[in-house]
Design goal:
CATH architecture of the largest domain: 2-Layer Sandwich
Distance between the termini: 46 Å
CATH superfamily of the largest domain: ATP-grasp fold, B domain
Number of strands: 14
Number of helices: 12
Radius of gyration: 21 Å
Helix content: 25-40%
Order of helices and strands: HEHEEHEHEHHEHEHHEEEEHEEHHE
Oligomer: single chain
Strand content: 15-25%
Strand order of the largest sheet: 13-12-9-10-11-14
CATH topology of the largest domain: D-amino Acid Aminotransferase, Chain A, domain 1
């Protein structure tokens, strides 16, 4: 059998790590595969809903376990995983460094290079990168002293945003409205970081691990900026956020906007990330401002998928060395979607 025939005969098994509640991605990848492989979902909790809708659920150690990557590589070898995707910010730096280990067992880890992952995870570095790209971002400060000086000069005004410099999923964000509250919140967030899973990533600069930012007001948008597996820009999908729930977009309407498309192209081309970049953008009287860059599938992707995009199909095609279909990289504007809950049995007899 030729090498091409061998490659074609190999199943395209997909592993979603830190799968949690991302059942919609399990279904989207299953649809993209069309029976040419299996969907594996991994999580440290046996009760993670996505595990129970995948072809096979895998229980793994927590991300901060010293043997986590070795365990994942072993699973990829055992189950002949061709495509691996992480859905967790804290896991991305580990996978980025270990990408050669996964390639050695035939697995493409859809993760950006370490320097890109680190830039996106570090909100201070993100603000500097956006400035270099000429993309407006919130005014950002690394100390109460520098923020207080900006407040006195009128460069900054209350309320402000105080959050971890290295953070995820809106954890630890506060909005102090005066100087006394600013000092209390700043110290409180530093204390909470030291007691959380963020302690490790913040240890290098414990006195510079909290950011103080300008609080933007106006209409918030979400973008999916799509690159291929070599970091080349392909498309931007935009949506106007209509409602939030637990820090994640709950309702949104897709939009077609030249400014947002150009912003996405600038980000994708300059950053060179792999796969999907999820980012938040504000439109106010002061113009457009970019807030966050997350180099992974974000909670807003289902709204793009409902409007016609199919990034799972794109990634599967690229992994199989097939030409992607143009319609996977287009969405219909003015499609309004909303998330909803459904109940899934994840255990019996107390298990």
């Amino acid at each position: 059998m030729s090498s091409d025939a061998t490659a074609a005969a190999r199943p395209t098994n997909v592993l979603l790590t830190c799968a949690g509640r991302r059942n919609y991605l399990v279904k989207a990848f299953a649809s993209a595969l069309g029976g040419r492989g299996k969907i594996f979902a991994a999580d440290s909790s046996a009760h993670a809903p996505a595990l129970h809708e995948a072809d096979e659920g895998l229980i793994v150690p927590k991300v901060d376990h010293p043997g986590y990557i070795e365990h994942l590589v072993g699973l990829c070898r055992k189950h002949d995983i061709r495509l691996l995707l992480s859905l967790n910010d804290l896991e991305l730096p580990l996978l980025a460094l270990a990408r050669p280990q996964f390639l050695a067992v035939g697995t493409i880890a859809v993760v950006s290079p370490p320097e890109i992952v680190d830039l996106c995870f570090d909100k201070w570095a993100t603000a500097q990168f956006l400035a270099e790209c000429g993309i407006p971002a919130p005014r950002t400060f690394l100390s109460v002293k520098s923020a207080r000086a900006a407040l006195r000069s009128g460069e900054l005004s209350y309320p402000v945003v105080v959050k971890p410099r290295w953070g995820s999923a809106s954890i630890g964000i506060e909005y102090p409205q005066d100087e006394r509250e600013l000092e209390l919140v700043y110290d409180l967030i530093k204390l909470r970081i030291s007691r959380s899973i963020l302690a490790g990533v913040s240890a290098a600069e414990p006195d510079r691990c909290v950011l103080i930012q300008e609080r933007l007001t106006g209409q918030e948008y979400g973008l999916d900026v799509v690159n291929d597996l070599d970091g080349r820009y392909l498309a931007t999908f935009a949506r106007r956020k209509l409602g939030m729930r637990a820090g994640e977009t709950d309702r949104a309407v897709t939009v077609e906007h030249a400014t947002l498309t150009q912003l996405g192209e600038t980000l994708g081309s300059r950053l060179g990330h792999v796969g999907v970049l999820d980012c938040d953008v504000f439109q106010s009287d002061a113009g457009w401002h970019c807030l966050e860059l997350n180099p992974r599938f974000g909670g807003g992707y289902p709204f793009s998928h409902a409007a016609g995009a199919d990034i799972p199909a794109l990634l599967v095609a690229l992994a199989e060395s097939r030409e992607p279909q143009a319609e996977w990289l287009r969405i219909a504007p003015d499609v309004t979607s909303a998330k909803c809950d459904h109940i899934l049995v994840v255990g019996r007899n107390g298990g």
